[in-house]
Hints:
Domain HNH nuclease: 56-97
Keywords: Endonuclease, Hydrolase, Nuclease
Protein name: HNH endonuclease
Strand content: 25-35%
CATH topology of the largest domain: Homing Intron 3 (I-Ppo) Encoded Endonuclease, Chain A
Organism: Agrobacterium tumefaciens
Largest sheet: 3 strands, antiparallel
GO molecular function: endonuclease activity
Amino acid sequence: MDPTAHTVRDRLAYDASTGVFRWRVRPTSNIPAGTRAGCSNTSGWLIVIFGVVHRARRLAWIYTHGKIPEGMEVRVLNRDESDLRLCNLELSTVRQRMERHPKHHNNKIGAQGVCKQTLGQHVRFRAKLCREGRVIHTSSHPTLEEAIAARAEALRKYEANR
């Protein structure tokens, strides 16, 4: 459960231009007020408030905007979890975050949304664009370059119509 904006603002000072949190009050006897709050870990910057571990990106949003709406999460735009400037944070749903996710590590083609189909001796490349749980575009092409271009064009048209 997230803390309230009042609790976050009472305990921490947040500089939106640098993304750094500092303690307003002494959290424990060995940490003075004014020192940088939290610690870095593989899943991002973490801050403990009243014995509960919180992601700093969520606290930054709560500090500046208040409550995070139900079903939403705070996403770091440049994927650098230590860069918590307010201009680098946005609200998104899990589905929106997954749509913007980079290609998977085991993608052998090297392009997101394109796969290779072998039908007997014929090799085709299929371009596919999915958004909001629906297939928006699918097409089959003789070359990888054509399939990548077709998916990019479908994405451009989809984004232009939103």
